[in-house]
Design brief:
The structure is a homodimer.
Chain A: H1 11-29, E1 34-35, H2 37-44, H3 48-56, E2 62-63, E3 67-69, H4 70-80, E4 88-92, H5 96-102, H6 106-109, E5 113-119, E6 128-129, E7 132-136, H7 140-146, E8 151-154, H8 158-170, E9 175-178, E10 193-196, H9 199-211
Helix pairs in contact in A: 1-4, 2-3
Chain lengths: ~210, ~210
């Protein structure tokens, strides 16, 4: 397999792609159709050589003396990131964090369709948020199977995360976006992808920087 | 300056330290006082050589044939991360995300004292959440100055972030934990630290992994 094959993009580059995605989207919304690696590097505060190196990883869309075609670069990065797949997601746990996520345009912008909300709380079940109504977690497996749900967003208490994830993985959920502070792993489902969000790690990085400024 | 000087720890290592911090805290709470790099590597799913390399960066507390003393390693990493500084923080914007953050034990565990809540919404001002009462954002500069606030957590709309941050920086706030999707930068305050949390980037990384599983 060649280095240009998407399977071979390093994890570090992949982690940077969403940032390119955001910057390119901003450029497009400002009708900027062409950009040099130098300009992009100034905006993004990374070196131009880093940008050229990163973007070369998946083919390289830059042209000497012309720069990058913003639209095609954006569309290529979107494709690599799976934006065109139209993954469907459910939120499990409609507490404050769950509610905060429901209200963001984040999903739509990234091609993810928020398709269901689940909670155990009787006071919440039946309540509507935007277009969606909170369902009973008892029904989540059936719902996920019938609606081809790929992503479960876990905004429920740490103690509930593992059992809930096992149930959802057995119902065909392919990826978990886990906001509980538990480090989720599912050894019995090696193909399932888990993105553990540790907000506390980001807070610690900030504290470190302040302490060492 | 030697490589062991904390100022010279690479950014990549710093980004991994909060994870060590979490794992070591779990070990301590399970009364595990000693661990080899091999055991730690199995738990954390990184190579033992990576662990030795990382921990050597700031002195190396391992002892051949004994492993690491969990307590002293935890305390050393805590110190490096600024946990002992007792930074005080305020939340600006008490919407769903702000409320979700108020209720986590995240701050206390990391030595950060949540000291004030601010919002513009008259219906929220005066309301109490735990020990804290929501104040009017008009008063935030005075409060931050008088209470030696180091960190402002920005959970307010994107459009308000820049102006709010400028006001807070001028009131002595040293670091911003920015949850709005805006890429905050404050060129007039070069010493101020900004941690932009882009939750969408994490969602994209998940989608990529699912698409390429």
């Amino acid at each position: 397999m060649s280095k240009n094959d998407s399977k071979y993009i390093s994890k570090a580059v992949i982690r940077r792609l969403p940032r390119y995605f955001r910057y390119l989207r901003d450029l497009l919304s400002n009708d900027i159709m062409r950009i040099s690696s130098k300009e992009l590097s100034e905006r993004m505060n990374v070196t131009a050589s880093q940008i050229r190196q990163d973007l070369n990883c998946f083919g390289g869309f830059g042209q000497q003396g012309y720069g990058y075609n913003v639209k095609s670069l954006y569309s290529e990065i979107s494709k690599i990131l799976g934006v065109d797949k139209g993954y469907k997601a459910v939120i499990i746990g409609v507490g404050n964090l769950g509610k905060a996520l429901i209200n963001t345009p984040m999903f739509e912008k990234r091609g993810v369709k928020l398709s269901g909300l689940f909670d155990v709380d009787c006071d919440l079940i039946g309540k509507s948020f935007g277009q969606l109504t909170v369902m009973n977690t008892d029904d989540m497996e059936t719902f996920c199977r019938e609606n081809d749900i790929s992503i479960a967003i876990l905004t429920l208490p740490k103690t509930e995360v593992y059992d809930t994830a096992i149930r959802l993985a057995s119902a065909g959920v392919k990826g978990f976006w886990n906001f509980s502070n538990a480090e989720l792993s599912l050894p019995d489902y090696p193909d399932v992808i888990i993105e553990n969000v540790h907000l506390g790690d980001s807070l610690m990085a900030l504290c470190y920087e302040i302490a060492n400024a």
